[in-house]
Amino acid sequence: MAHKRTDLIQGTLDLLILKTVAQGPIHGYGIAQRILVTSREILQVQQGSLYPALHRLQRKGLLKSEWKESGNGPMAKLYSLTPAGKKHFQEEMTQWQRYADAVALVLQS
Amino acid sequence: MDFPWKRAESELAREIAHHIHELTAEYVRQGYSPQEAARLAKREFGGYEQTKERCRDERSWAWLTGLRQDIVFGWRMMKRTPVVTMAAVLSLALAIGANTAILALMDVVLWRDLPVPNPQQLTNVNWRAHGFPKEIVNGGSGSMDREDGWEVADFFSYSGFQQMRQRLSGKASLAGFSFPDTVSVSFAGQASVAKQRSVSGNFLSTLQVRPELGRLLSDSDDAFAAQPAVVVSHRFWKSALGSSPSVVGRPIIIDNKPNTIAGVLDSRFAGLIPGDATDIYAPLHSSGLAQWFDNNRFWCIQLIARRMPGYAEIAMQPEIDAAFVSSWAAQPKKAADAPHILLSGGSRGLGFLSKNFRNPLLVLGGLVSFLLLIACINIANLLLSRAAAREKEVATRIALGCSRLRLARQFLTESVMLAVLGGFASTIVAYLTEGLLGQFLLFGHGESLPIHASLDLRVLGIVVATTTAALLLFGIFPSWRSSNLRNITGKGRQRWNSGRVLTLSQMAMSVVLVMCAVLFTRNLSAIQSGDPGFDRRNLILFDIRPGTSGYAKSKLQNFYFNLERQLAATPGVNNVGLCSIRPMNVGGWWEDLGLPGHNDIRGASINGVTPTYLSLYSGRLLAGRSIQWTDIVSGAKVALVSEDLAAKWGGNSVVGKRMTFTDGPPGQPKPEYEIIGIAPKIAPTSMKERPSAVWLPLDKESSGVTVAIRTSRTPAMVLPAVRKTLAGIDRNLPLVDVMTMEEQISQGLQRERMFATICSGFGILALVLSVVGLYGVIAYSTARRRGEIGIRMALGAMPKEVVTMIVREGMTVAVSGLLLGLPVIWFGSKYVEKELFQMKPLEPATILFSVGVLLAAALAAVMVPAWRASAIQPAQALRED
Fold this sequence. Notes:
Radius of gyration of chain A: 15 Å
Order of helices and strands of chain A: HHHEEH
Helix content of chain A: 55-70%
CATH architecture of chain A: Orthogonal Bundle
Number of helices of chain B: 25
Strand content of chain B: 15-25%
Strand content of chain A: 5-15%
Number of strands of chain B: 24
Largest sheet of chain B: 6 strands, antiparallel
Radius of gyration of chain B: 37 Å
Helix content of chain B: 40-55%
Shape of chain B: elongated
Number of domains of chain A: 1
Distance between the termini of chain A: 35 Å
Largest interface: A-B, 18 and 21 residues
Number of domains of chain B: 5
Structural class of chain B: alpha+beta
Oligomer: heterodimer
Distance between the termini of chain B: 47 Å
Largest sheet of chain A: 2 strands, antiparallel
């Protein structure tokens, strides 16, 4: 593949996961795939970071999980946002937006 | 059972399996064969175990599971080498236990407050002067010490006490007391011996001791006309009065005088100093001191004050001093040298115990902390080498995603486990050593203080603190080091690796401990083997006190004469003598002597004796005649003087002259004695000093005497006959403190013996630990160098050269350690010197012997691995690597 992939900025992985999960219950592989596809194959999430991050978010009470059949495959662990997770996601989202706008302003000046 | 961690494990595995399954499916969709797809999926996923491990680290109870694993793992590691583990736990237990025991003793002796309310309000009252102010003081009982060029004394006249007490009234309460006396007690038909302290009426209420039964003494008890009443300690109430709740108001006979028990004290109050053995508190006016109360040159009462809240010591000093100065009958010639009041904090009671034992306790405390360090270093070395043996395992674990923190924690858990085991075992050691150490605190009269810092919460707290300190010392460094992969894999052969540096410092501390052991053992044997001037074998000593057991004074003279005659006729008895001061009992009766035309002699030892007494010890007199029974009967003022005393006063010409005791009873002419003869010199009071001696005729009205018997056979064989003779004279007269002269002498050396024993124990332990440490380090490094040694030998090195190489390496560590220890010894010697008798701390013989012992032990420890290395077969060693 000839695409140039960018490493994730520290701390943005959590936000990307929360955003992806906010769209409905989804398993780990699905999260990685969706981030890859949505970012036009620029952002590739390493599994080595994905699963620890998922487990960390779950421990913090932002994500919940349940085992369900997914499509045609075997049972999968599906993650979804808890109410606390939704709130946290909104806050992080706003913060990120402000941050990105600010960086854009400086770079375009 | 479905443990949460087991469920989480299986879920984690399934979740990751699902991920790989999806990846595989993706590759299949892209057109790969299923096998190829599975291979690619696995490759893309990457470190399977690392990911799992990192997920595990994210669990909220991860540390708990980890801990369980660590403990199980640690236990398995310890079980694999049970002997090493046991040795580690044992050495740690001994070291922590000894530290705890010393700390507990220091706590009791140096730091603990009296168990009374608001102890910080208590103040010790002393006075200090330049020289002894003879014009105003003619002291009775009390003690005097030299401190920073001052004489500090604790005795006051009764009238001075009263004037100071009045001056302070409303601001502080001043109470007086005396030294404890030994008294004969009879209660409900049971006779016993007890310690009695005479105290002013307000003494117990000043201390605010609570009575458990009855009441305290009051000022109305402390008067000549009062009904005689006493208060007893809780311990005495339990041991001698049978814990009877109805003792209050009952009669008790003390030294043949009727008394009433007014109360029993609180069980927590053990007296004015730790281990104060006072059983009975009686009013001052009922004591023998009362006859001197109207003589204000006879100073015999000690004082303690309780200040009211807000009345500081600094405000109290000028007031009490003014009252003190105005209470004197005369003024000293030089005002600058006159006594003035010296106050000192009294929250811990009387200060002399901490004064006497601070230094020995500090010395012992320093030694045991070295011991703990040595034990800790051994364990650190053990953990280091164990970690090195686990290099491959550690590398594997790191490769599998184990975080460094997790790894360090595992190593730390092992040291914590060792520390916990050691800590538990140490409480037993502490309990055992403490009883032993308690004996080492002795009063001059050979009575051990009943000090027992029982294993209470404070002591347990000390154990926990010491264990934690030990844990930090020996746990952190190896766990940090071993968890660092770089340290493990990239390690070349360093000349001074951490193991060697640790062993070196261990050697440095061992040389200090071994030297102390040698030093105190030599000290003890030097004192013991000294010549007291007489044959110490086959001598029996015991006390007998007819005067306090119902004999009238007028009958005592006949009683003693008869006693001596009948004992002399007992089979197995060669010779019998009586004296008023027990020989070799450290304390005694001291006087300053004067002879016109000659210098005064200070501190001569005086004893009253019967005619045969001196012949028990030595042969004929050197000049003059001996004491006769007629001298005793007539109360003649005659004296025998020791050889060395006579030599100072002009030799044989001294016979016939009249000497005086320059400090006689106040207000009376100085006692004069005609010197009638010169006796050979013997040690009268202790193996540690040889004062001049004066022998007077025994006081015929002395209420008690010490009987000394020279036997023809071993004392144990003669003693039954002696007891039988005494029973024939008076069945109800108890023999007190029966012992042989050898036992009496060794009792006086108990402190030296304890020091020698404890230090030898520490020294041997330190030697064993550090030699084991050295062996371990050298054996380990030679084992790692098998390949190198194999090459050397293949290239023609002789076995002898290999031995030399390794021995040189090991001995470099040992010798550097010894050299490092020498400054410590030099620095510590000034503390040790105070505990020594006639011996300097840094004698060549002591240093050479200790260093020699250590070097020999180190050589033995190094030779074993050296020989083993020299037996290496080059071909085999090379094949192994």
